[in-house]
Amino acid sequence: xxxxxxxxxxxxxxxxxxxxxxxxxxxxxxxxxxxxxxxxxxxxxxxxxxxxxxxxxxxxxxxxxxxxxxxxxxxxxxxxxxxxxxxxxxxxxxxxxxxxxxxxxxxxxxxxxxxxxxxxxxxxxxxxxxxxxxxxxxxxxxxxxxxxxxxxxxxxxxxxxxxxxxxxxxxxxxxxxxxxxxxxxxxxxxxxxxxxxxxxxxxxxxxxxxxxxxxxxxxxxxxxxxxxxx
Length: 230
Hints:
- The chain is of the alpha/beta class.
- The chain has a single domain (5-192), classed as Alpha-Beta Barrel (TIM Barrel).
- Helix content is 38%, strand content 17%.
- The protein contains 10 helices and 8 strands.
- The chain has helices at 5-11, 29-35, 52-62, 81-85, 100-110, 136-147, 157-161, 163-167, 179-185, 195-211, and strands at 18-21, 40-44, 68-74, 91-95, 149-154, 176-177, 219-223, 226-229.
- Strand 2, helix 3 (52-62) and strand 3 (68-74) form a beta-alpha-beta unit.
- The longest helix has 17 residues, at 195-211.
- The two termini are 34 Å apart.
- Residues 213-218 have low confidence and may be disordered.
């Protein structure tokens, strides 16, 4: 069982570096991403046209690398989360999360009991085709609960208002933001140097710092209550 590369980066005291896939899904892509030095790859099922079979193929190819595949979906499709994870996907980014109840619903789909209610499907791509038998619940499920990364994306004023309560939900590992939708909701679409957008980034990064001390790859802490982005 492979440790999630995002968790590995945090354990090693460094930021996890990621990239994304939206158009290309050939078998060589995961290896190219690994050789480029990335820790994880976000596969876009929100704005991209990848189907489930393509996602399953990518998950299998990523399994031969040290890069963890993360799939991005819209919150309207969280019922697909268990199916995606059963293909060997190592994390889910969920767009448009607005409140803690939506975050809890995501956790229920993605985590095994006692944290969530994900069904146990026996051996398959997610277990490396190993059979855990009656050890599934005591050996594999705790490992999966630790290594499957859940990352709500804040993209609205409501989500921004509730970001702290979203981050506080047990089972949520990271917080992302949709810079296009969020800046649009603020009335400053793609004005990423606007003082109000920078203020929002400060608020969100401080929430992440207080809750988990996990930072995006483009930010680093300067002290207990400050940070810089580059």
